[in-house]
Protein backbone atom coordinates (compact mmCIF):
# COMPACT_ATOMS: atom_id res chain seq x y z
CA UNK A 1 0.00 0.00 0.00
CA UNK A 2 2.87 2.35 0.88
CA UNK A 3 4.46 1.54 -2.47
CA UNK A 4 1.20 2.33 -4.29
CA UNK A 5 0.90 5.62 -2.39
CA UNK A 6 4.49 6.42 -3.33
CA UNK A 7 3.79 5.91 -7.04
CA UNK A 8 0.53 7.88 -6.81
CA UNK A 9 2.48 10.76 -5.28
CA UNK A 10 5.09 10.61 -8.03
CA UNK A 11 2.28 10.56 -10.63
CA UNK A 12 0.61 13.56 -9.01
CA UNK A 13 3.88 15.49 -8.98
CA UNK A 14 4.51 14.64 -12.64
CA UNK A 15 1.00 15.86 -13.53
CA UNK A 16 1.52 19.06 -11.53
CA UNK A 17 4.78 19.62 -13.36
CA UNK A 18 3.08 19.13 -16.73
CA UNK A 19 0.36 21.64 -15.91
CA UNK A 20 2.95 24.12 -14.62
CA UNK A 21 4.86 23.74 -17.90
CA UNK A 22 1.85 25.30 -19.63
CA UNK A 23 2.36 28.55 -17.73
CA UNK A 24 4.45 30.10 -20.50
CA UNK A 25 5.68 33.66 -20.06
CA UNK A 26 7.79 34.16 -23.22
CA UNK A 27 5.87 32.88 -26.22
CA UNK A 28 7.07 33.10 -29.82
CA UNK A 29 4.19 32.64 -32.26
CA UNK A 30 4.56 31.72 -35.95
CA UNK A 31 1.39 31.97 -38.04
CA UNK A 32 -1.06 34.86 -38.06
CA UNK A 33 -3.96 32.52 -37.26
CA UNK A 34 -2.24 31.11 -34.16
CA UNK A 35 -1.22 34.59 -32.99
CA UNK A 36 -4.82 35.81 -33.29
CA UNK A 37 -6.07 32.86 -31.25
CA UNK A 38 -3.51 33.50 -28.49
CA UNK A 39 -4.74 37.09 -28.24
CA UNK A 40 -8.39 36.03 -28.42
CA UNK A 41 -7.73 33.75 -25.44
CA UNK A 42 -6.35 36.72 -23.49
CA UNK A 43 -2.72 35.56 -23.52
CA UNK A 44 -1.30 38.30 -25.74
CA UNK A 45 0.82 39.74 -22.93
CA UNK A 46 2.80 36.49 -22.84
CA UNK A 47 3.81 36.87 -26.51
CA UNK A 48 7.30 38.30 -27.00
CA UNK A 49 7.78 37.63 -30.73
CA UNK A 50 5.77 36.87 -33.86
CA UNK A 51 6.38 35.95 -37.49
CA UNK A 52 5.80 38.12 -40.55
CA UNK A 53 2.30 36.75 -41.21
CA UNK A 54 1.09 37.98 -37.81
CA UNK A 55 -0.51 41.39 -38.25
CA UNK A 56 -3.57 41.29 -36.03
CA UNK A 57 -4.32 42.64 -33.51
CA UNK A 58 -2.42 45.85 -34.24
CA UNK A 59 -0.30 45.55 -31.08
CA UNK A 60 1.58 42.53 -32.51
CA UNK A 61 3.45 44.93 -34.76
CA UNK A 62 5.39 46.09 -31.69
CA UNK A 63 6.68 42.57 -30.98
CA UNK A 64 10.07 41.17 -31.98
CA UNK A 65 10.16 39.48 -35.41
CA UNK A 66 11.23 35.88 -36.08
CA UNK A 67 10.80 35.92 -39.87
CA UNK A 68 8.44 33.97 -42.12
CA UNK A 69 6.42 31.08 -40.65
CA UNK A 70 7.83 28.52 -43.13
CA UNK A 71 11.36 29.94 -43.10
CA UNK A 72 12.36 30.27 -39.45
CA UNK A 73 15.96 30.06 -38.29
CA UNK A 74 16.94 28.28 -35.07
CA UNK A 75 19.39 31.06 -34.17
CA UNK A 76 16.77 33.77 -34.72
CA UNK A 77 14.23 32.04 -32.50
CA UNK A 78 16.69 31.12 -29.73
CA UNK A 79 18.14 34.64 -29.67
CA UNK A 80 14.94 36.00 -28.12
CA UNK A 81 14.96 33.27 -25.42
CA UNK A 82 11.33 32.11 -25.64
CA UNK A 83 10.01 29.38 -23.35
CA UNK A 84 7.60 28.22 -26.10
CA UNK A 85 7.48 28.33 -29.90
CA UNK A 86 3.93 27.73 -31.06
CA UNK A 87 2.95 27.80 -34.70
CA UNK A 88 0.74 26.94 -37.63
CA UNK A 89 0.70 23.48 -39.23
CA UNK A 90 3.13 24.67 -41.93
CA UNK A 91 5.67 26.15 -39.48
CA UNK A 92 9.17 25.19 -40.51
CA UNK A 93 11.40 24.21 -42.13
CA UNK A 94 11.30 20.77 -40.44
CA UNK A 95 15.05 20.62 -39.71
CA UNK A 96 14.83 23.94 -37.82
CA UNK A 97 11.94 22.61 -35.72
CA UNK A 98 14.04 19.49 -34.94
CA UNK A 99 17.02 21.67 -33.96
CA UNK A 100 14.89 23.82 -31.66
CA UNK A 101 13.49 20.75 -29.93
CA UNK A 102 17.02 19.38 -29.59
CA UNK A 103 17.92 22.67 -27.86
CA UNK A 104 15.20 21.83 -25.28
CA UNK A 105 12.77 24.50 -26.44
CA UNK A 106 9.10 23.56 -26.12
CA UNK A 107 7.71 23.56 -29.68
CA UNK A 108 3.99 23.12 -30.43
CA UNK A 109 2.82 22.71 -34.04
CA UNK A 110 -0.89 23.03 -34.84
CA UNK A 111 -2.66 19.97 -36.27
CA UNK A 112 -4.00 19.99 -39.81
CA UNK A 113 -7.66 20.76 -40.32
CA UNK A 114 -10.17 21.27 -43.13
CA UNK A 115 -12.94 23.76 -43.80
CA UNK A 116 -14.51 25.84 -41.06
CA UNK A 117 -13.80 23.11 -38.49
CA UNK A 118 -10.07 23.79 -38.71
CA UNK A 119 -10.64 26.91 -36.59
CA UNK A 120 -12.12 24.83 -33.77
CA UNK A 121 -9.16 22.43 -34.04
CA UNK A 122 -6.69 25.32 -33.78
CA UNK A 123 -8.46 26.97 -30.84
CA UNK A 124 -8.48 23.64 -28.94
CA UNK A 125 -4.79 23.16 -29.71
CA UNK A 126 -3.78 26.63 -28.46
CA UNK A 127 -6.05 26.33 -25.41
CA UNK A 128 -4.54 22.98 -24.42
CA UNK A 129 -0.97 24.14 -25.05
CA UNK A 130 -1.37 27.25 -22.89
CA UNK A 131 -3.60 25.65 -20.25
CA UNK A 132 -6.55 27.85 -21.21
CA UNK A 133 -9.11 25.17 -22.07
CA UNK A 134 -12.03 26.97 -20.41
CA UNK A 135 -11.44 30.18 -22.41
CA UNK A 136 -10.93 28.07 -25.53
CA UNK A 137 -14.31 26.37 -24.98
CA UNK A 138 -15.98 29.80 -24.72
CA UNK A 139 -14.26 31.03 -27.89
CA UNK A 140 -15.26 27.85 -29.76
CA UNK A 141 -18.89 28.25 -28.66
CA UNK A 142 -18.93 31.88 -29.85
CA UNK A 143 -17.26 31.00 -33.16
CA UNK A 144 -19.56 28.03 -33.77
CA UNK A 145 -22.71 30.07 -33.10
CA UNK A 146 -21.63 32.79 -35.54
CA UNK A 147 -20.72 30.26 -38.24
CA UNK A 148 -24.06 28.44 -37.79
CA UNK A 149 -25.93 31.71 -38.27
CA UNK A 150 -23.93 32.43 -41.44
CA UNK A 151 -24.61 28.91 -42.74
CA UNK A 152 -28.34 29.58 -42.31
CA UNK A 153 -27.99 32.75 -44.38
CA UNK A 154 -26.11 30.89 -47.11
CA UNK A 155 -28.75 28.16 -47.09
CA UNK A 156 -31.41 30.75 -47.84
CA UNK A 157 -29.60 32.20 -50.87
CA UNK A 158 -31.28 31.60 -54.22
CA UNK A 159 -28.16 31.87 -56.35
CA UNK A 160 -24.51 30.94 -55.99
CA UNK A 161 -22.21 33.10 -58.12
CA UNK A 162 -19.09 31.60 -59.70
CA UNK A 163 -15.99 32.93 -57.96
CA UNK A 164 -12.32 32.88 -59.00
CA UNK A 165 -9.66 33.48 -56.35
CA UNK A 166 -6.38 34.81 -57.77
CA UNK A 167 -3.47 34.47 -55.36
CA UNK A 168 -0.84 36.15 -57.53
CA UNK A 169 0.55 36.32 -61.07
CA UNK A 170 3.39 34.13 -62.31
CA UNK A 171 4.82 34.73 -65.79
CA UNK A 172 1.62 36.53 -66.70
CA UNK A 173 -0.65 33.64 -65.65
CA UNK A 174 -2.87 33.96 -62.58
CA UNK A 175 -2.20 31.46 -59.77
CA UNK A 176 -5.67 30.45 -58.63
CA UNK A 177 -7.17 28.51 -55.74
CA UNK A 178 -8.43 25.02 -56.48
CA UNK A 179 -10.09 22.46 -54.21
CA UNK A 180 -8.45 21.74 -50.83
CA UNK A 181 -7.28 25.34 -50.42
CA UNK A 182 -8.31 27.98 -47.90
CA UNK A 183 -9.65 30.03 -50.83
CA UNK A 184 -11.99 27.20 -51.87
CA UNK A 185 -13.29 26.80 -48.33
CA UNK A 186 -13.99 30.51 -47.76
CA UNK A 187 -15.75 30.83 -51.15
CA UNK A 188 -18.07 27.92 -50.32
CA UNK A 189 -18.75 29.22 -46.80
CA UNK A 190 -19.76 32.59 -48.29
CA UNK A 191 -22.24 31.00 -50.71
CA UNK A 192 -20.15 30.98 -53.86
CA UNK A 193 -18.99 28.27 -56.26
CA UNK A 194 -15.23 28.03 -56.74
CA UNK A 195 -14.55 27.85 -60.48
CA UNK A 196 -11.20 26.19 -59.67
CA UNK A 197 -12.77 23.25 -57.85
CA UNK A 198 -11.92 20.72 -60.59
CA UNK A 199 -8.24 20.71 -59.57
CA UNK A 200 -6.53 20.74 -56.19
CA UNK A 201 -4.10 23.23 -54.70
CA UNK A 202 -2.78 26.47 -56.14
CA UNK A 203 -2.26 26.26 -59.92
CA UNK A 204 -1.71 28.61 -62.86
CA UNK A 205 -4.79 29.07 -65.06
CA UNK A 206 -4.29 29.79 -68.74
CA UNK A 207 -6.45 32.23 -70.67
CA UNK A 208 -8.54 29.55 -72.36
CA UNK A 209 -9.41 27.94 -69.01
CA UNK A 210 -10.16 31.31 -67.39
CA UNK A 211 -12.54 32.31 -70.19
CA UNK A 212 -14.24 28.89 -70.05
CA UNK A 213 -14.60 29.16 -66.24
CA UNK A 214 -16.36 32.51 -66.73
CA UNK A 215 -16.35 33.73 -63.11
CA UNK A 216 -18.98 36.21 -61.97
CA UNK A 217 -16.61 37.62 -59.34
CA UNK A 218 -12.83 37.68 -58.94
CA UNK A 219 -11.41 37.77 -55.42
CA UNK A 220 -7.86 38.73 -54.47
CA UNK A 221 -5.92 39.63 -51.37
CA UNK A 222 -5.62 43.41 -51.08
CA UNK A 223 -1.81 43.27 -50.82
CA UNK A 224 -1.37 41.19 -53.98
CA UNK A 225 -3.85 43.36 -55.87
CA UNK A 226 -1.87 46.42 -54.77
CA UNK A 227 1.40 44.86 -55.94
CA UNK A 228 -0.10 44.44 -59.40
CA UNK A 229 -1.13 48.10 -59.64
CA UNK A 230 -4.68 49.36 -60.09
CA UNK A 231 -7.77 47.25 -60.81
CA UNK A 232 -7.20 47.47 -64.57
CA UNK A 233 -4.15 45.20 -64.18
CA UNK A 234 -6.68 42.42 -63.55
CA UNK A 235 -9.94 43.64 -65.09
CA UNK A 236 -8.15 44.97 -68.17
CA UNK A 237 -6.66 41.60 -69.11
CA UNK A 238 -7.94 40.35 -72.49
CA UNK A 239 -9.14 37.04 -70.99
CA UNK A 240 -10.81 38.60 -67.94
CA UNK A 241 -12.64 41.12 -70.16
CA UNK A 242 -14.50 38.18 -71.75
CA UNK A 243 -15.85 36.93 -68.39
CA UNK A 244 -18.90 38.10 -66.44
CA UNK A 245 -16.56 39.44 -63.77
CA UNK A 246 -14.68 41.50 -66.33
CA UNK A 247 -17.80 42.81 -68.04
CA UNK A 248 -19.30 43.96 -64.74
CA UNK A 249 -15.95 44.99 -63.19
CA UNK A 250 -16.48 42.79 -60.11
CA UNK A 251 -13.13 42.55 -58.35
CA UNK A 252 -13.18 42.00 -54.59
CA UNK A 253 -10.07 42.81 -52.53
CA UNK A 254 -9.80 41.71 -48.90
CA UNK A 255 -7.11 41.38 -46.23
CA UNK A 256 -5.29 38.08 -46.86
CA UNK A 257 -5.03 36.90 -43.25
CA UNK A 258 -8.66 37.80 -42.55
CA UNK A 259 -9.82 35.99 -45.67
CA UNK A 260 -7.56 32.92 -45.74
CA UNK A 261 -6.16 32.66 -42.21
CA UNK A 262 -9.05 30.68 -40.70
CA UNK A 263 -8.75 32.11 -37.21
CA UNK A 264 -11.23 33.70 -34.79
CA UNK A 265 -12.15 36.40 -37.34
CA UNK A 266 -13.35 33.90 -39.96
CA UNK A 267 -17.05 34.73 -39.30
CA UNK A 268 -16.21 38.37 -40.15
CA UNK A 269 -14.45 37.23 -43.33
CA UNK A 270 -17.36 35.02 -44.40
CA UNK A 271 -19.89 37.80 -43.76
CA UNK A 272 -17.79 40.35 -45.66
CA UNK A 273 -17.17 38.06 -48.63
CA UNK A 274 -20.85 37.06 -48.68
CA UNK A 275 -21.79 40.74 -48.85
CA UNK A 276 -19.37 41.28 -51.75
CA UNK A 277 -20.51 38.31 -53.84
CA UNK A 278 -24.17 38.63 -52.84
CA UNK A 279 -24.50 42.42 -52.67
CA UNK A 280 -28.22 42.26 -51.86
CA UNK A 281 -27.73 40.30 -48.60
CA UNK A 282 -27.41 42.03 -45.27
TrEMBL record:
InterPro entries on file: ABC_Transporter_SBP, ABC_transptr_periplasmic_BD
Entry annotated with the keyword Oxidoreductase: no
Domain Fe/B12 periplasmic-binding: 26-282
Keywords per UniProt: Signal
PROSITE patterns on file: FE_B12_PBP
Residues spanning the signal sequence: 1-21
Protein name in UniProt: Fe/B12 periplasmic-binding domain-containing protein
Amino acid sequence: MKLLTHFMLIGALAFAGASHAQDYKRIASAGGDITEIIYALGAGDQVIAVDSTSGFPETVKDKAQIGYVRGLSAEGVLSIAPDLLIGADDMGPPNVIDNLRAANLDVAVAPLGHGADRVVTKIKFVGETLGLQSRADDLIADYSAKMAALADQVGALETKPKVLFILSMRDGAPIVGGAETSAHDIIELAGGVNVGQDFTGWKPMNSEALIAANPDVIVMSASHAENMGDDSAVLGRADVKLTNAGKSARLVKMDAMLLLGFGPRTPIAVAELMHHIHPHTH
